[in-house]
Task: inverse folding
């Protein structure tokens, strides 16, 4: 019986048992006493000796190198979260993702396509708007009227827009509380993606152009809450009071931002008016492709 503290060995055996020869392109054999890959098969795929894999599984080797862990993770077809967990049980810091993902996971795409009557926008971890509903455009300004590089909330909040004709993120720029919460979230992104060059450029722009951003960034505050109850001043319906929620999808690191009104209120009536106006005049949001999301590469 394995020792209860042998987390590394127990984890390795469990993952080896769930992988089939077909999963890794090996020829299937008829008689196998145990489920999953044999120890020698996994060792061969990972480029290590069978004896060393046995010692890892038995808890006699507790500190594999980062290269060994990375090779075993690839051979075991581990997900990003599983790879991070594998590093932790091996006594190593998890690898950091190379770049911020900008792809929409299929599940989020399907949700957005079914939320046409709600102002919904989906952002990357750098707060670049990836897709939106027509109600989002009706409430906060039409992103399709801006070039892609201006569909970023950081630039919209801390830089002057190139023109005032088509405001973007119209209602998101007013309060110091919102700006502080946004910068706090950006600080988390900075820690999670230290090698993302586009994000470095974005932060450099904000630092050089906004004294307010520099002041907020220099205050090491975490945990400020995005969202909450918002009073918005809209050019068509006047003041409208809405609940603003920010939902994070951790595996893909995107933020789903929604605005909803309390049922039976004049605010709900105003949203309905905007929905009718949007259906008549607004261009459609960008099409949602249901192509699979490629994995985000990790960097040790």
Result:
């Amino acid at each position: 019986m394995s020792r209860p503290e042998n987390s590394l060995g127990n984890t390795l055996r469990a993952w080896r048992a769930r992988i089939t020869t077909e999963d890794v392109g090996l020829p299937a054999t008829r008689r196998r006493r145990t489920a999953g890959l044999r120890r020698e098969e996994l060792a061969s795929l990972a480029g290590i000796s069978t004896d060393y894999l046995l010692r890892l599984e038995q808890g006699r080797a507790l500190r594999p190198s980062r290269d060994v862990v990375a090779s075993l993770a690839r051979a075991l077809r581990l997900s990003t979260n599983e790879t991070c967990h594998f590093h932790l049980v091996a006594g190593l810091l998890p690898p950091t993702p190379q770049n911020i993902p900008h792809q929409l996971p299929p599940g989020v795409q399907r949700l957005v396509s079914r939320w046409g009557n709600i102002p919904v926008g989906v952002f990357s971890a750098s707060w670049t708007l990836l897709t939106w509903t027509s109600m989002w455009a009706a409430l906060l300004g039409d992103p399709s009227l801006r070039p892609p590089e201006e569909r970023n909330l950081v630039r919209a909040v801390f830089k002057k827009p190139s023109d005032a004709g088509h405001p973007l993120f119209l209602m998101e720029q007013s309060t110091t509380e919102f700006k502080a919460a946004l910068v706090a979230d950006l600080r988390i992104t900075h820690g999670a993606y230290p090698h993302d060059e586009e994000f470095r450029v974005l932060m450099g722009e904000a630092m050089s152009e906004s004294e307010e951003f520099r002041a907020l960034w220099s205050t090491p505050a975490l945990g400020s809450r995005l969202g909450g109850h918002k009073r918005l001043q809209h050019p068509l319906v006047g003041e409208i009071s809405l609940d603003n929620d920010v939902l994070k999808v951790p595996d893909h690191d995107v933020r789903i931002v929604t605005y909803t009104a309390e049922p039976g209120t004049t605010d709900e009536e105003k949203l309905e008016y905007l929905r009718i106006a949007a259906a008549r005049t607004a261009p459609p949001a960008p099409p949602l492709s249901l192509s699979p999301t490629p994995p985000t590469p990790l960097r040790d």
